[in-house]
Amino acid sequence: MWSKLRTLSIVAILEKIKIAIEYTLTPRMKYCILLVLSFCFFGSIDAQDPRFSQFNASPLSINPALTGVFDGKVRATTNYRDQWASVLGSTPFRTMALGVDYKYELNKGDFFGIGFSMLRDEVGVAKLNQTKGHLSASFIKQLSEGGFKSTAHHLGVGVQVGGGQNSLDWGQLWFSRQFDPSTESVNTNLPNGEINQGTSDFYLDINAGLIWYAIFDGGKSIYAGGSYNHINSPVISFLDDQEETLYAKWIGQIGGEFPINNQLAFMPSVLSMGQGPSLETVAGAAIRYDNRDQGEVALRLGAYVRAANKLDSGMLMDAFIVAANFEVSGFNVGLSYDINVSSLNLATQSRGAFEITLAYIHQPLTASGPSRRRIKNPTF
User: Fold this and answer.
1) What was the pLDDT predicted at 380?
2) Residue 367 pLDDT > 50, yes or no?
3) Which residue, 301, 333, 307, is CA-closest to 320?
4) pLDDT score for 145
5) Hey, how many other C-beta atoms are within 10 angstroms of the C-beta on 315?
6) Burial (Cβ within 10 Å: 0-12, 13-18, ≥19) of residue 246
7) Do the domain assignments include residue 268?
8) What pLDDT was estimated at residue 201?
9) In the 8-state DSSP scheme, what is residue 45?
C-alpha cells in the first residue's frame, strides 16, 4: 500500500505541475522538468533506504559490526544530505543521521562495542518521511598477530535492533478529483477520494553484519565487511496491508590505507549495495596528508564514482563525487558534492547533492597492562 499510496499522490502532483507549466515553458523545458520530477519521485516509490555519498562517515548505518571499530573510546557522528535542490527548490530530498558508539576492551585485543543511531529522510512537497532508530552491539575478536611487530587481524560481528515509522503530510497534496475544469483551478474543499492516514504503524527492524580488518606495521591497513538489513521484512504500509514490506538490503564494502611516504597515504574504498530491484556501487579513493604532530592535523581529498542500475539499461554512471576532510584533535569535518552525470544532467545542470559530516572521537584507547600500548583501528 505504501507504493500505491505514494504513486497516487505523486501522479496528482505531476498532473498539477504539467498544467502549470503547459503554457509557460518551451517543449524542451517541459520535457526536462517532468523527466526530472518523475525520476526523483518514482525512483524511490518502493521505500528504498536513503544513503550517503560519504558512506564511511556514517558507519552505523552501513554495518552494525562497525560499532566500536575506531581509534578511540567514544565516537559521535552526524550527517546531513541535501539533494535535487536545483530542480525542487525549497523541498529537496533531505537526509539526516546521527550515531554514538562506545568501545570497551574485554581482553587483550578483544573488544565489545555498543551504540545508538538515528536516521530521518524527508522527500518532496508532501514531506514523505522515514524515521528510524537502532541500538547496536558488536564483538571484535583478535584472530592473530603476524610476524611483524604491530600486525594484528580482527574479526567483528554486530547486530542492530530498532524500529521506525513513516509519515506523510496530506495537507500538501491535491488530486485530480479536486481539479475543476470549468475554472481551471483546484478546489481543495472537494473530497480527494483517498484514505488520509498520515502515519504508519511503528515497525521492528533487525540488521546484522560482519567486518574483518588487519593493521600492519607502518600504518598500512585493509578491511572488508558486509551486512544484511531488514532481516525481518518489516511492514511499512500506512494501511492494514501486510504485503507492503521493506525490501531486505545487503551491503558489501572493502578498502584500506596504504602509505606512500611518511606523510601521504592512499585510501581506496568500494561500497556495493542491493535492495529489491535496485543496485548501486560507489568506488574511488582519497589521498590523506598527515603531519603527524601532536595536534594530529590531517587533510584528505577524494574522488569517487557512483553507478546504479536504471530499469532495463543495466548499470549506468550516476554521479561523480568529490570530497574533502579536515581532521584535528579528534574532530573530522567532511564536505562532498555529487556532480550529476546521468541523463538528467541537462535539466539539473549537473547539480546533484551536497553533504556535510562531523565526527568526534574521544580519547585514544590504550590496552591494559604496563605497556599501555595504543590500540589501532583502520582509518575509514
Assistant:
1) 84
2) no
3) 307
4) 67
5) 12
6) buried
7) yes
8) 86
9) T
Does 372 map to a domain? no
Residue 279 included in any domain: yes
Provide the residue type at 345 as one letter: N
Band (pLDDT 50/70/90 cuts) for residue 24 is: very low
CATH code for position 288: 2.40.160.40
Q: What is the pLDDT of residue 300?
A: 96
How far apart are the C-alpha atoms of 58 and 303, rounded to whole Å?
Answer: 18
Residue 208 resides in a domain: yes
- What per-residue string of b and e applies to 198-226 under the rule 16 or more CB within 10 Å gives b? eebeebebbbbbbbbbbbbeebbbbbebb
Q: Which three cell numbers stand for residue 13?
A: 502532483
DSSP state of 201: P
Nearest to 166 by CA among 205, 206, 229, 121: 121
CA distances from 109 to 9, 101, 223, 307, 350 (A): 54, 18, 17, 38, 47
Strands 264-275 and 185-186: unpaired
Contact between residue 44 and residue 336 where contact means Cβ atoms under 8 Å apart: no
pLDDT digits (tens, 9 = 90+) for 106-138: 877 789 999 999 999 988 777 788 999 999 999
pLDDT, residue 141, reads: 93
Domain count, the chain: 1
| Region label for 41, one of left (φ > 0), alpha (ψ between -120 and 50) or beta (otherwise) | alpha
pLDDT at 343 over 90: no
Side-chain half-sphere exposure of 239, counting CA atoms within 13 A = 11
Instruction: Please say whether the beta carbons of 239 and 3 come within 8 A.
Output: no
What is the bridge-based pairing of β-strands 221-229 and 179-180?
unpaired
User: Domain range for residue 201?
Assistant: 2-362
Listed in order, strand segments (DSSP E) in 62-151 are: 74-83, 93-107, 110-123, 128-145
Q: What is the pLDDT of residues 160-186, one digit of tens each?
A: 999 999 888 777 777 778 787 877 788
pTM for the whole thing?
Answer: 0.80
